[in-house]
Specification:
Length: 67
């Protein structure tokens, strides 16, 4: 489970780096698409707290971007 969480966080951070200038909604859509299309993360993507987790991560990353 720890390895899976590290992978998820790494992917989210990587997407944030790739889309530094993207608005919140666009970044969310790219991240959602990334997990939706990778069968290794099906259970995570289908979890009822997926959206909440991703939105919280995005909010924290954008806050860090803006200093």
């Amino acid at each position: 489970m720890k390895h899976m969480l590290k992978s998820i966080n790494g992917i989210v951070a990587g997407m944030n780096s790739s889309f530094k200038e993207a608005p919140r909604e666009e970044l969310y859509n790219w991240i959602k698409y990334r997990f939706m299309t990778d069968k290794r993360f099906t259970e995570f993507f289908e979890h009822r707290y997926f959206e909440k987790y991703i939105v919280n991560k995005i909010d924290k990353m954008i806050e860090m971007r803006n200093g």
